[in-house]
């Protein structure tokens, strides 16, 4: 199957995981609405909605760059309507935009607390709310959250309670919405990486170049998302998926191609449940 002619609305698609998912779809000839805040170059972050649009076009897709802050209800509603009008519909929504501050409670600034909840949980809820009427008219509609399985263990909360609340909030939206939309045939799933992913967040906030070398590239999530979007929406919904385990079930056996540095051990990401084992031959250093 192919995503040719399908229209995707991806939040946070100017760089990182969101852009990788966009480029994978673009290689099929898909349409991509890039919903992100970075309109002008940022001193610490690569890419803008315009550079992303150029990459998507070069990969074979059609792009619509939209400057959107997912905290702004009017901006979200307008952008979704613009994307559907521009491309003639909406088939897939990817809630990728996220804010992170992995700090303990006493060290968490309340402005950062509010930002994480406004972007992660509320932003995801808001995008879904306004996308549903458009998705209801699509042939095989999907909503995908880049968020973790709901593994409610103390260790996933204790070191960074505010971030965990906000990130698990995205997954709770997926849980509830999958049930709400099942009868309409709109799939709602969540996807999460087993390892750290080489993005600006890793370089700037979570370990720098050392952890970057121990990470996988965003391409593993892009390939997994692509495989999800090919599934029948009426039956493949309510799933909380780990990237490599899901891809292994789809027949993928070579996971080394996603490694940034094959000489470095892979670093486990947050929130990966113990009861979802890695595929055969994959070894990951535990998060400490």
Overview in brief:
The protein is an alpha/beta fold and 288 residues long.
Which features does this protein show?
seven-stranded parallel β-sheet, alpha/beta, 9 strands, 288 residues, two-stranded parallel ribbon
Describe this structure in words.
The protein is built from 9 helices and 9 strands. With 288 residues, it is α/β, with parallel strands linked by helices. The strands form 2 sheets. Strands 3-2-1-4-5-6-7 form a 7-stranded parallel beta sheet, with helices on both faces. Helix 1 links the parallel strand 1 (7-11) and strand 2. Helix 3 packs parallel to helix 4 (110-135) and helix 8 packs across helix 9. It is globular, with a radius of gyration of 18 Å.
What layout of secondary structure does this protein have?
Elements: E1 7-11, H1 16-26, E2 31-36, H2 49-59, E3 62-67, H3 73-87, E4 92-95, H4 110-135, E5 142-146, H5 161-181, E6 187-192, H6 200-205, H7 208-213, H8 219-229, E7 240-242, H9 243-249, E8 266-267, E9 284-285
Parallel strand pairs: 1-2, 1-4, 2-3, 4-5, 5-6, 6-7, 8-9
Helix pairs in contact: 1-2, 1-8, 3-4, 4-5, 8-9
